[in-house]
Amino acid sequence: MKRSVHSSGLPPAINETLGYLMVQICRAHRNRAQELLAEIGLHAGQEMLVLRLWTADGITQTELAEEACIQPATLTRSLDRRTPHRC
User: Is a pLDDT exceeding 70 seen at residue 7?
Assistant: First the structure.
């Protein structure tokens, strides 16, 4: 495999690599997604749970936790954040 070389003949600086740029893009996407989700009262990751609940009416918490690859207790905490609590 041929290594990438900068026009100077040296390896590219870390901030010129594809991996570095992909990390920056992912970080920017995550930050923007968090801003938009916060506007509708969701935390990152909850949008996928809400979407699945929307498309699979009647799905159990156990099934939802299995599909999301999370522990049932983690799902319960996430759903509790979404449920208005009355005093």
Answer: no
